[in-house]
Specification:
Rossmann fold; three-stranded antiparallel beta sheet; Gyrase A, domain 2; binds arginine; 22 helices; four-stranded parallel beta sheet
Length: 571
């Protein structure tokens, strides 16, 4: 039950000319519980109803007082404050969670319609750095959220697997590389070769010519060039996959930039036919002056294609292949102009679905002050970050709970969870500063804190069942009148917000709404836990409190899973 919806259903017939959804949007959660559970600011209705706010609120009050699911209604300075009947609310809310279980919070909004999400998309032979971490984590969370809400999601890893750099890499490898070292060291060695190429090319400019020649060979399908390139791709993917495995992320398509090689010519023709292409010093571009943007480069002087060419081609391909309702690109904010430009090109090509292309931008990550970038040399490889986090959590477990079973597994779940959660802890567009102390703090607003609270619920439930099960003996039989205290009610109200939080996270494409929600729910549960002993003698009281614990646990688990974390039952 989304109780804003319930109130809107009830109010709509009383407010002529008002859409239910408009009423839902108008309803507010008062800043403190003394002012009710929900509040309708009636001044927003004054215009439509042509009455002063106080008169509207008085009128609504007299009508609403008949609703048996409301305890009382107050008309205060133009606001209509609603107080839910606590007992029936608690009974319904917890029953709903206990019945829906792992589906609690889900809705069928998408009805099977398709969303394509382009995320992670690292570059071959380049490190998977902390910037790629964010797109992977945000993209995966969006995939989980959209799926939970009834969409069919196609997960695309648009690998950066094409470009002149492969010509350089081939030259560098043939010049200074060794197969065994590349096999052993992977991307680290490929990167070293690439850097060496640039150093050497300063004094030996002919290296550049050789690199260009090799790239041409690659484009023409030369056997050796293709073999080396494929090898670089495999070596890189092997490393990326280790990270994806740790994060629990997978994809439906790895069609990277090279996939579009044979599809770009047709698009260039189409641009020409539509008279969008202009020549400029031998290069071909689409002017975007009218939109105050620099032109989108389509072909280089030598006929080579560019990042724009590939993205435009990929979008057309995806529209034809998947017939998406929306295509989402989870890419750092530094590329905003790139996306604005080519979205505009699609629009000018006459495709009305240009409006369905969305750039989901996010801010930079820095490591306690130092910016993380490949160029500056302080590359923090993501795999190191994850394994370090796991090791640190392992230490904490060893000192606090040395006898725990499957320590290894739990350390991974919590260590990885800490990193994911940290990335989703604020609005994605904000830059984040990574700090070990903050990310791993079991008492902070962190993944470990939420996971620990979930494990605490499990531990209570296990004790209650006298064994290893965390299931309630009989889910529906509890008496909500046993839960009429402030802490229990506050926790249940928090549980009730889950469904709309998930929906908002989807609408705003902002998984951090769920992370913050989970911290609030965990905090409100912990207040309940400290005030109300659960495993009490009194049978009815214990049953009711356990029903609340189970509902919180279920909601925490669903929420954690939606943002890509696991919910271990013991920590
Ligand atoms: N490979 C690019 C990078 O690492 C990101 C690609 C994003 N996706 C896209 N369709 N442009 O910066």
């Amino acid at each position: 039950m989304q109780y804003k919806q319930k109130v809107a259903d009830y109010l709509a017939p009383m407010l002529e000319g008002m859409e239910e959804s408009a009423i839902v949007d108008m309803l507010e959660y008062p800043p403190n519980p003394d002012m009710g559970d929900l509040s309708l600011p009636c001044f927003k209705l004054s215009r439509t109803l042509r009455k002063p706010p106080q008169a509207i609120s008085e009128e609504l009050k007299s009508k609403l007082e008949q609703a048996e699911w409301l305890d009382k209604v107050e008309a205060v300075s133009g606001y209509c404050n609603l107080y839910l009947d606590k007992e029936s609310f608690l009974q319904q809310q917890l029953t709903e969670v206990l019945t829906a279980k792992e589906r609690y919070g889900s809705q069928n909004i998408g009805q099977g319609r398709t969303i394509v999400i382009d995320y992670s998309s690292p570059n071959i032979a380049k490190p998977f750095h902390v910037g790629h971490l964010r797109t992977t984590i945000i993209g995966n969370a969006l995939y989980l959220i959209f799926s939970f809400l009834g969409y069919h999601v196609v997960r695309v890893n648009h690998l950066g697997d094409w470009g002149t750099q492969f010509g350089k890499l081939i030259v560098a490898y043939k010049e200074w590389g060794q197969a065994e070292t590349v096999e052993q060291e992977g991307i680290g060695e490929l990167l070293r070769l690439y850097v060496k190429f640039h150093d050497e090319a300063e004094s030996q400019p002919e290296l550049e010519d050789r690199a260009r020649a090799w790239f041409v060979k690659l484009e023409q399908g030369d056997e050796e060039a293709i073999r080396l390139w494929k090898w670089f791709v495999d070596i890189s993917l092997k490393e990326f996959n280790k990270i994806y495995e740790l994060l629990g992320v997978s994809f439906d398509s790895y069609a990277g930039e090279s996939f579009y090689n044979d599809k770009m010519q047709a698009v260039v023709e189409e641009l020409k036919d539509k008279q969008l292409l202009e020549e400029d010093e031998g290069a071909m571009l689409v002017r975007l002056d009218e939109y105050n943007m620099p032109p989108a480069l389509i072909l280089k002087k030598d006929g080579g294609t560019l990042y724009h060419t590939r993205d435009i081609t990929a979008a057309l391909y995806r529209k034809n292949t998947y017939d998406f309702e929306k295509a989402i690109y989870v890419v750092d904010a530094g590329q905003s102009l790139h996306f604005k430009q080519w979205f505009k090109v699609i629009e000018r090509m006459g495709y009305d679905w240009a409006d369905d292309l969305v750039h989901v931008a996010f801010g930079k990550v820095s490591l306690e002050g130092a910016k993380l970038s490949t160029r500056k040399g302080n590359v923090v490889m993501l795999e190191d970050l994850l394994t370090q986090s796991i090791a640190k959590i392992r230490e904490i477990i060893d000192s606090k709970n040395p006898d725990m079973e499957n320590k290894e597994e739990v350390a991974r779940q919590v260590g990885v969870g800490a990193i994911i959660f940290n990335d989703l802890s604020t609005n994605r567009i904000k830059d984040i500063v990574f700090s070990w102390e903050e990310a791993l703090n079991f008492d902070g607003e962190t993944g470990p804190y939420v996971q620990y609270t979930h494990a605490r619920c499990c531990s209570v439930l296990r004790k209650a069942s006298g064994g290893s099960s965390i299931e309630l003996p009989s889910a529906e039989s509890f008496d909500a009148s046993q839960l009429l205290n402030e802490e229990a009610y506050a926790a249940a109200k928090q549980i009730a917000l889950f469904t709309e939080t998930v929906e908002q996270a989807m609408i705003k494409m902002e998984p951090s709404l769920i992370s913050r929600y989970l911290v609030d729910l965990a905090q409100s549960f912990n207040r309940f836990y400290h005030h109300c002993p659960i495993l009490v003698e009194d049978d009815e009281l214990r049953k009711a409190r356990l029903a609340l614990v189970q509902s919180v646990r279920m909601t925490l688990e669903n929420g954690l899973r939606l943002i890509g974390l696991e919910a271990p039952r013991q920590i």
